[in-house]
Amino acid sequence: MNKQPHKNKLHLEEQEDRSAFIKMTDGGPRYTVDDAILATGFGKFQYFVLLYAGMGWVSEAMEMMILSFIGPAVKSDWNLTSQQESLITSVVFAGMLVGAYSWGVVSDRYGRRKGFLVTAIITSGAGFLSAFAPNYIALLVFRCLVGLGLGGGPVLFAWFLEFVPAPNRGLWMVIISAFWTFGAIFEASLAWIIMPRLNWRWLLAVSALPSFLLLVFYVMTPESPRYFCLKGQKGDALRVLEKIAKQNRKELPLGALATDNEIELQGKNIPIEDMVSLPASRDGDVAPLHPPPKWKDSDMGVLKSLLLLISPKLARSTVLLWVVFFGNAFSYYGLVLLTTELNNRNNTCNHAKAQSDKSSDVDYKEVFITSFAEFPGLIVSALIVDRIGRKLSMAALFFVACIFLLPLVVHQSPRITTILLFGARICITGTFTIVFIYAPEIYPTSVRSTGMGVASAMGRIGGMICPLVAVSLVQGCHQTAALVLFVCVMFVAGCCVMLFPHETNGLELTESVSSTKNEKAQAVKQQEP
After folding, report:
1. Is residue 410 situated within a structural domain?
2. Which residues are listed as membrane-spanning (predicted)?
């Protein structure tokens, strides 16, 4: 008995979707999600989405920055070896490696909201419990779970991207990256205040609090209208778009909402096997003559979505993106760890520094100072990402970062070391920001979160390895070898950026791998002088 209202609701939604499609095929005016987002602009609705996704970015930044502080502190308290200290960082990236892929698949298959809900629960819970870890093994388990939750960060990024108008996408994606910068600086500030007075357990507990805010405001978050359109749920997509228009005090375009697939169907004949029609209604009624089509890759399994990433149309971009994400994560988190290691008074390889039994206050100050390098990194990104394009911006910043790190192959004074790390951090912050703009732009909605997740997972491998270089090698008096490795990785990543097949600056987002709406635009760009 209680199932009848649910059936009626499903039937009504299906009829709405079919009615919209019939209007479109009858020659009436139509518009896409991109048209609707552009018409309603960036307003009150997007500011809420920005703040929510930004809070997730703050949380992830704090949980990542904390690694450079708790490692030395736990090592001192529990008499750990350098390898055991490195493992505290590596297990976080191991968890992120699994989570980045898993949450990407979940969000592409079940919706963006479900993806970041579970990640917020895991991150907040495991992060807070880390403060009460009774021993080394328990701490490793909790930090690995934190990493599993943090792996969902790209889902929030992709979710925000799908609400941003195409002409201003680069600028707003840089702005959301500022939340990461704020989180990194805030964490360094907390460490500078808490660590000398209390201990690392207090820092872990306080750093977990931002994740709980994601749970508090979750009920207010909308699902992506692009995701709804991909799944053939145009009625749900239209309701979200109407909400955007109402909050932004704008009007939707005239006509019926249409998917990219429906627009292209009017321009060419597409075989029926390339589409999946909505089923007949739950009451057994026969579907109308014109059921709204969906892309054939809108309901894929896990394996199929992975294979699609390495299909001929996406393979080159995917493989190059994996290398760039690896290089970015290896370099960025390596610089964070190098900041404490190269300025650590416990470093027995640098005899110019006094010996001490525990981390000095200078460590926190140096991390705090170099964290501010992210602000000019963001400014540089904002200035160049839409002017010279994503590819040239990333490549230039990678190569300049190499120049900053080269002098550090030999020991430098603390002041020179901080200046050089500051400059390198500016560049790598810029590349990290821009690649998170570029990556979701090259993938269609059907595999956007999966593609971002797998690429992010490759980055986590870089994060797992970097402590072995930034911590173990430096503490083992192999600073030259460590810095040469960092320079080589950055150089290779910069070369891979130049090999990307497409520049995405100004292009609209596509819904499916089968979509061809951007091919003409890309061809025109390649012909431009």
Report:
1. yes
2. 47-74, 86-104, 140-164, 171-194, 200-221, 319-338, 392-410, 416-439, 451-474, 480-500
Which domain range does residue 160 map to?
Answer: 44-223+303-504
Number of helical (H) and strand (E) elements in the chain, helices listed first: 24, 4
3-state secondary structure of 276: strand
Summarize pLDDT for 480-494 with one digit per residue, the tens. 888 888 899 999 999
Q: Strand 30-31 relative to strand 256-257: parallel, antiparallel, unpaired? A: parallel
Interval 188-230: pLDDT, tens: 888 888 888 888 899 999 999 988 898 999 888 888 888 888 7
Q: Is 234 part of a structural domain of the chain? A: no
Specify the length of the chain in residues: 529
Cα 325 from Cα 431, distance rounded (Å):
10
DSSP-derived pairing of the beta strands 293-295 and 256-257: unpaired
Asked whether residue 437 is assigned to any structural domain, the reply reads yes
Burial (CB < 10 A; 0-12, 13-18, 19+), residue 309, is buried
Answer whether 287's CB lies under 8 Å from 277's CB: yes
- Which domain CATH number covers 113? 1.20.1250.20
Neighbours of 2 (CB within 10 A): 5
Please give the backbone phi and psi of residue 314, each rounded to the nearest 5 degrees, phi first.
Answer: -115, -10
Q: Quote the number of domains for the chain.
A: 1
* Start-end of H helices in 266-389: 302-309, 315-341, 361-371, 374-384
Q: Which of 486, 478, 526, 480 is nearest to 503 (CA)?
A: 526
pTM of the model: 0.68
Q: Is the dihedral of CA 7, 13, 16, 18 positive or negative?
A: negative
**Angle formed by the axes of helices 136-150 and 67-78, nearest 10°:** 170
Instruction: Assess contact for 107 and 130: CB atoms under 8 A.
Output: no
CA distance 506 to 171: 11
- Is residue 18 a part of any domain in this protein? no
Residue 288 CB partners (closer than 8 Å, separation 6+): 18, 22
